[in-house]
Amino acid sequence: xxxxxxxxxxxxxxxxxxxxxxxxxxxxxxxxxxxxxxxxxxxxxxxxxxxxxxxxxxxxxxxxxxxxxxxxxxxxxxxxxxxxxxxxxxxxxxxxxxxxxxxxxxxxxxxxxxxxxxxxxxxxxxxxxxxxxxxxxxxxxxxxxxxxxxxxxxxxxxxxxxxxxxxxxxxxxxxxxxxxxxxxxxxxxxxxxxxxxxxxxxxxxxx
Length: 207
Hints:
The protein has 207 residues and is of the alpha+beta class. 45% of the residues lie in helices and 18% in strands. The chain has a single domain, classed as Lambda Exonuclease, Chain A, CATH 3.90.320.
């Protein structure tokens, strides 16, 4: 896989431009649903979004903001500092890993081998993760995509909730490439089929 790392801040104009027309890791769950079966409506809608971006060269108006994304923007820097203190590491900019027709934006990089994904969540979601003793499965394919697109060895999933006592505000679960060996192959194969759907959708749009 050809990959180029772009050192751009997340949510900056440059970052948004780099993502136009590419399948990104944060949306991998859309096309990984249904196993090897037919793509569902979320995948078809996402394929249309990417096709429109390719056709127009600008971001399609499919994005949204809600209380969860706003919480992330507010609490993520705090969660990152807690993580650095707890793990005795420095987190550097995740930027954007450009892999041609797809890419990935981790929340941070740790040394030469690690990737960070931070979720700032509600108390109920955080408690469920605490009880589960593992990462939130809703983000499995985003974590797999981080390892696939970055080529790095491990990813730390962080759940953070400021409503909890200080000792349990931060939860960290690490996954390695070996943990996701099967998922990495499944992601590669399914993404290739999804990108074919994008091209089929693009071909159906008069230009």
